[in-house]
Design a protein that fits this description.
It is built from eleven helices and ten strands. It has helices at 3-23, 69-76, 101-106, 124-133, 141-147, 149-153, 164-176, 194-209, 221-227, 245-250, 252-259; strands spanning 31-40, 43-53, 58-62, 83-91, 94-95, 109-112, 182-186, 213-217, 230-235, 238-244. The chain has a six-stranded mixed sheet with strand order 6-7-8-3-9-10, with helices on both faces. It has a four-stranded antiparallel sheet with strand order 2-1-4-5, with helices on both faces. Helix 4 (124-133) runs parallel beside helix 7 (164-176). The longest helix is centred in the N-terminal third of the chain and has 21 residues, at 3-23. It is globular and about 45 Å long. The chain binds adenosine-5'-diphosphate and magnesium ion. Adenosine-5'-diphosphate binds at residues 40, 43, 45, 63, 65-71, 81.
């Protein structure tokens, strides 16, 4: 980045951060995180991250490999690692920073991790059944199968024998089987052919139409930005940019500096 640009970008960040601080006094936003700091042992990874999301929005959380995207999602879902040492997380006025992972799940947070975690030995439908055991039921199966007809065709098949794309559909379907408010998707398009990715993109728009709020982490930034309302870019554990998805698509310098696209 040239120095002139660095100056402009830094100034823009300062203004954005001021706005973010003003906007986020916590409880009144649909979802907000304030000054999150999370560690793996001594490694300081999630560095003072604050942002808000309006109800029903899709936010693309972007940044290079190792920028801290997965760690941020895990901190929000209250996974044991990384350890959240300070900061606040609010979902619909409920605090999550003082909760365990299962309590965050009961409050309506669902992380779909990169490796999808389909349960071996269970059919597609049994994977959905298992998701429903805890908490309030969400979408009924017919609705999930309308969203992903391939899952209906394969509902008696063992989940781990599905293709990568179908396993991603099952992982998302399983999230929707519970009554969720915030969906955290970690690289859902990874390894998928464009045609399968399009099926998932279409499904994510339907999920948005249902009012569910989504944080979408993707290496395929252009695909994520096409779907997203807002964008956050992480760089070495800090927020380097926040703005509309369109701003990122339009700003070649920004994409070059932080996304290598
Ligand atoms: N379990 C872990 N223990 C220690 N360090 C980790 C662990 N997981 C990730 N990290 C480190 O945290 C940083 C951010 O990783 P991650 O959140 O996975 O980035 P991203 O998802 O943006 O690629 C990286 O430097 C990574 O090496
Ligand atoms: Mg990651």
């Amino acid at each position: 980045m040239n120095t002139q640009n660095t100056g402009i970008v830094a100034e823009a960040h300062a203004v954005e951060n001021q706005l973010a601080t003003k906007e986020s006094s916590g409880a009144e936003s649909y979802f907000s995180v304030k000054n999150l700091n999370a560690y793996y042992g001594d490694s300081y990874i999630v560095q003072d991250i604050s942002f808000d999301i309006a109800e029903g929005q899709i936010v693309a959380l972007l940044g290079r490999n190792g920028a801290g995207k997965s760690s941020t999602l895990r901190a929000i879902a209250r996974a044991d690692e990384p350890e959240l040492r300070s900061g606040e997380i609010y979902l619909c006025g409920t605090t999550l920073h003082d909760k365990k992972d299962f309590e965050a799940a009961l409050a309506g947070v669902q992380l779909v991790p990169e490796d999808r975690r389909i349960i071996p030995g269970l059919s597609v439908e049994e994977n959905l059944d298992l998701a429903r055991i805890d908490g309030e039921p969400g979408w009924d199966y017919e609705r999930i199968y309308d969203l992903f007809p391939r899952l209906k065709e394969r509902r008696k098949q063992e989940g781990i024998t599905l293709s990568g794309g179908e396993q991603q559909m099952l992982a998302i379907g399983r999230a929707l089987a519970r009554d969720i408010k915030l969906l955290l998707l970690d690289e859902p398009y990874e390894g998928l052919a464009p045609v399968v990715r399009h099926d998932i993109e279409r499904a994510l728009l339907e999920v948005k139409n249902d009012g569910i709020t989504t944080i979408l982490v993707e290496q395929n930034a252009v695909a994520a930005l096409k779907l997203a309302d807002r964008a956050l870019i992480l760089d070495t554990g800090e927020i380097a940019f926040r703005g509309s998805a369109q701003e990122v698509l339009d700003n070649e310098q920004l994409r070059h500096d932080y996304l290598a696209i």
